[in-house]
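Hello support,

Our group uses your service weekly, and this is the first time we've seen a run hang past the timeout. The protein is Phage shock protein C (PspC) family protein. I'm not sure whether the cause is the sequence or the server load. Input pasted verbatim:
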Amino acid sequence: MQKLKLFFEERAFGVCSRLGEKFNFPIDSIRLFFIYASFITLGSPVIMYVSMAMMMKIRKYFRKMNNPVLFD
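Update from on-call engineer: The timeout came from a worker crash unrelated to the input. Re-ran successfully.
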């Protein structure tokens, strides 16, 4: 079970961990919220999760473009 958990944590987008760090909230609680909310609302939090993941990737891309490393 631990290997399965590590597999998904390494390949996930990191949205839950990022929210947990930013708001100083337990990551497990955020993950459970997304899971339960997905079952209750028939998957609409999945759309929110994917959109937040895309925003994180786009921000990372723009930060990388705005901060070029200059070599002499």
